[in-house]
Design brief:
The protein is α/β, with parallel strands linked by helices and 443 residues long. It folds into two domains: 2-200, Rossmann fold, CATH 3.40.50; 217-435, NAD(P)-binding Rossmann-like Domain (Rossmann fold, 3-Layer(aba) Sandwich). The protein has helices at residues 10-21, 33-40, 51-60, 70-76, 97-109, 126-141, 161-166, 178-188, 203-234, 238-246, 267-280, 286-309, 337-347, 360-367, 379-383, 403-409, 424-429, and strands at 2-6, 25-29, 64-67, 79-82, 114-118, 147-151, 171-174, 198-201, 318-322, 351-355, 373-375, 388-391, 414-417, 433-435. The strands form three sheets. Strands 3-2-1-4-5-6 form a six-stranded parallel β-sheet, with helices on both faces. A six-stranded parallel β-sheet has the order 11-10-9-12-13-14. Strands 7-8 form a two-stranded parallel ribbon. It starts with a strand and ends in an 8-residue tail after the last strand. The mean pLDDT is 97. The structure holds nicotinamide-adenine-dinucleotide.
């Protein structure tokens, strides 16, 4: 099928590559000319396992093209996907300016029927807004052309986005149109062979399903972090508690790791947007507000702990930081807990030596050149001259460090672990102090 995707970010680019890989003819359109030029030259601007070779091979086969030409994009695709950003507005609501701009663009160029499929995460009612925008723009042109607006929220996880798109757990389709449903069944058929993963529902329910999924996951994280805070104060070990509750199949082991709070481009903004949506109906979303507040507090825990350990000031101290991306296997630092940590360390007067396997370019872009930040090319280099180590992202490369070397390098022999990566007894055996989340100090 001929598909056009507006927006070549984490969602649009991955979905475009995966659809091309099963034989669809995909055109990806973006307003970012530099990004499009890089992609046309076969350079993939984001770190996502398996993505670059898939983009390059499908480009070479002529099934995947990149363009800034919106008119060409609208002419190309019978299905037109919206995969543009929906960043938070100042009041926490989702900013729909990019979504509605693409809706206007589509309407100004379309000459035949189109199915507009929204993959961006958008508040309930947005499909109606997109339909009204397209309808109004067509009326202005004085033409009547049939179109549908379908909700097809995306559930990929950054760091595993290609695998998730190739083998989705479910494909949510929000539409009342049997024609649109048929088109999407045909499009996704290669991903729907083993069993029917398609869940078809009304458009508002599909829009809410995406927020409900992210809010549930954020709730699990804030829940375990709340219990971790309690465990610390009660002399219990959250890792034992986590295994203890995870064994109940009604709870399960996944997504109950305590840590330095959730981050990324989705959970924080989507929880806030859902809170905003709830309030706009006159309903007070007590649980969601608590989830958001717990997370804000949790993201401060690691910094507070380090500053507290040093009696309130880090002047003259150098802290090595392992991990900057908001989670492993991505270069994305949007809303990353590392950013809270770095700000707290700098505010207390510390110098930082940081390492991340993928997010160094992003860190350079965000923080620029500053005398209190050294970006290091290896975890070992970050330790050189450091007083203590803080771990924020659970990349595999940090999981089995040479503890003897850590003890030799770190002047204050102290490890602050925001991801509970190590066995406290093993760390202690090497003469290192170890402060992690929700676990009692080793005697
Ligand atoms: P992103 O910021 O990485 O990419 C968005 C892209 O859209 C950018 O390249 C931008 O230049 C482009 N764009 C903006 N306006 C445009 C226009 N008028 N025409 C063409 N392109 C335009 O965003 P993302 O992370 O891919 O997320 C996109 C949407 O998907 C958001 O609503 C997000 O909440 C949702 N989502 C994201 C993820 C994720 O893990 N990143 C997962 C599921 C859903």
């Amino acid at each position: 099928m001929k598909v056009t995707i507006f927006g070549t970010g984490y969602v649009g680019l991955v979905q475009g590559a995966v659809l091309a890989d099963v034989g669809h003819e995909v055109m990806c359109v973006d307003v970012d000319a530099a990004k499009v030029a890089a992609l046309q030259a076969g350079r993939v601007p984001i770190h996502e396992p398996g993505l670059a070779p898939m983009v390059q091979s499908n480009q070479a086969a002529g099934r995947l093209q990149f363009s800034t030409d919106a008119a060409a994009g609208v002419a190309h695709g019978e299905l037109i996907f919206l995969a543009v950003g929906t960043p938070p507005d100042e009041d926490g609501s989702a900013d729909l300016q990019h979504v509605l701009a693409v809706a206007r663009t589509i309407a100004s160029h379309m000459t035949g029927p189109r199915t507009i499929v929204n993959k961006s995460t958008v508040p309930v009612g947005t499909a109606d807004k997109v339909a009204a925008t397209v309808g109004a723009a067509l009326a202005e042109r004085g033409v009547a052309i049939a179109f549908e607006v379908v909700s097809n929220p995306e559930f990929l996880k950054e760091g595993a986005a290609v695998a998730d798109c190739k083998r989705p757990d479910r494909i949510i389709i929000g539409t009342a149109s049997s024609t649109a449903e048929g088109q999407l069944r045909e499009l996704y058929a290669p991903f729907n062979r083993n069993h029917d993963r398609m869940v078809v529902m009304d458009v508002r329910s599909a829009e809410l399903t995406k927020y409900a999924a992210n809010a549930m996951l954020a709730t699990k994280i804030s829940f375990i972090n709340e219990i971790a805070n309690l465990a610390e104060r009660l002399g219990a070990d959250i890792e034992a508690v986590r295994r203890g509750i995870g064994s109940d199949p009604r709870i399960g082991y996944s997504f109950i790791y305590p840590g330095a709070g959730y981050g990324g481009s989705c959970f924080p903004k989507d929880v806030k947007a859902l809170i905003h949506t709830a309030r706009s109906t006159g309903f007070a979303p007590e649980l969601l507000q608590a989830v958001d507040r717990r997370n804000a507090a949790q993201r401060a825990v690691l910094g507070e702990r380090i500053v507290g350990h040093y009696g309130g000031s880090l002047r003259g101290k150098t802290i090595a930081v392992w991990g900057l991306a908001f989670k492993p296997e991505t270069d994305d630092m949007r809303e990353a807990p590392s950013r809270n940590l770095l700000q707290a360390l700098w505010a207390a007067g510390a110098r930082v030596r940081a390492h991340d396997p993928a997010a160094m370019g992003e860190a350079r872009r965000i923080f620029g050149e500053r005398p209190d930040l050294t970006l290091c090319t290896s975890p070992a280099e970050a330790l050189q001259g450091a007083d203590s180590l803080a771990i924020v992202t659970e990349w595999k490369i940090y999981r089995v460090p040479d503890f003897g070397e850590l003890a030799r390098q770190l002047k204050d022999r102290m490890v602050f672990d925001g991801r509970n990566l190590y066995d406290p007894a093993i760390v202690a055996r090497h003469g290192l102090g170890y402060s992690c989340i929700g676990r009692p100090p080793v005697p």
